[in-house]
Amino acid sequence: AALIIGAILSATEQHADLGALVCDMEPDTITASDPSILENLKLCPVLTGAQRDALNTVLLKGGTVYGDPSSWDLWTLQKLGPLVLALNQTTLRLVAEAVREAFGKSIMATY
User: Fold this and answer.
1) What dihedral do alpha carbons 66, 70, 76, 78 form, nearest 10°?
2) Confidence band (pLDDT; 50, 70, 90) for 20?
3) What is the spatial distance between Cα 36 and Cα 16, in angstroms, rounded to a whole number?
4) How much is the pTM?
């Protein structure tokens, strides 16, 4: 099933119908998929360490709607939603310190 899903995702940008099925995807399938896979990964309650690494690889390639992490602003971090919890130090270091601080403040203000 994972191979079939991977083939579908590699062949098309439109995979919203797959929903949370991506939560069981192998990391290699995530990195080989269209970058829009990130929107489906937001549905996953938990990502494995390897899936988080794959997510960061996709983000660092820069072909996502979020752009290069060095260009991210507060809005971008907010739009990443739950995926922001999966960002590793390599990705986070590319985000401007002021943006990271503003994001932290926005979380504290919300909660």
Assistant:
1) 130
2) low
3) 9
4) 0.80
